[in-house]
Design goal:
alpha+beta, seven-stranded antiparallel sheet, globular, 16 strands, 2 domains
């Protein structure tokens, strides 16, 4: 009985050291492109993986983001090669940007107003920079499989996750020139325009870290990765009580042995252990 109690105590302490594993979820934007090719593509020099100087500001309405619970973290994004490319893998030479910045924010304007608002900062509320610095895309990390649409490429991870507050989302990507070989990325312009956008829109500038975005363009098909507020559970530190209990195991076992030995000694003398 005493050993059963000791095992139970050890089990309780063991459970206190186990952290639940959280798994990330994904969301394709626009949602209609999850299992379909976008209607157009970005050029090799423009867009999120373009080799030229570029600033991209995207607007996504809350209708597209309904599967992301408020308070969840957006931890990165992916894009995919356009299906119009020749069957094969891309890029043929690794891409490298010295300066690649991503900022997420709540939308400070409606999607209709966004269509005529060229001020990058004024379009955003509570912006948070989630990635800043160099970015590398390995050779042959994207595939054109000759299917109707291609699989998404590697995750571009945020160094600082973005806590989604609900509502419309602004997604800002700015980068300098890249070394390597660019390729066309899948994009969509269905329902797009300055005044008739209903769910998503993009404004661009052909410079890095532009303060104004004056040109409208098709938005890339992207896949967000998101999860609960703590997406990767760190190994927990042992608190004082846990350390005390672990350190007490030898003492508890020794006390149990001593108690049994004392009881046997009393039995030999004809006495009963109280």
């Amino acid at each position: 009985m005493r050993f059963k109690r000791l095992k139970l105590l050890m089990g309780v302490v063991g459970l206190s050291l186990v952290s639940p594993v959280q798994y990330a979820s994904t969301l394709t934007l626009p949602n209609s492109a999850q299992f379909a090719e976008g209607a157009t593509s970005s050029s090799t020099t423009a867009g999120v993986l373009g080799t030229g100087n570029f600033t991209n500001q995207f607007f996504y309405t809350s209708a597209l983001l309904s599967s992301i619970p408020v308070g969840y973290e957006i931890t990165g994004f992916r894009v995919r090669a356009d299906a119009g490319l020749a069957t094969g893998t891309y890029p043929s030479a690794a891409l490298h940007w010295n300066n690649y910045d991503v900022t997420l924010a709540e939308a400070a304007v409606s999607i209709t107003a966004f269509g005529s608002s060229s001020n990058v900062a004024a379009n955003m509320l509570n912006p948070q920079q989630v990635l800043s610095g160099a970015l590398d895309i390995a050779v042959n990390s994207f595939t054109d499989s000759a299917a109707s649409f291609n699989p998404f490429g590697p995750l571009i991870s945020f160094t600082t996750p973005y806590l989604y507050q609900g509502g419309d989302l602004i997604f800002l990507v700015s980068h300098g020139t890249a070394t390597g070989t660019g390729f066309n990325v899948d994009a969509s312009n269905t329902g797009f325009g300055y005044t008739n956008s209903s769910e998503f829109a993009q404004r661009i500038a052909t410079s890095c870290n532009a303060t104004t975005v004056n040109t409208t363009s098709a938005a890339p098909v992207i896949q967000l990765e998101f999860g609960p507020h703590t997406t990767t559970a760190p190994v927990p530190e042992l608190d004082t009580l846990t350390l005390f209990l672990i350190g007490s195991f030898p003492l508890i076992a020794r006390a149990a042995r001593t108690r049994r030995q004392y009881a046997r000694s009393l039995a030999m003398l004809g006495n009963t252990y109280p």
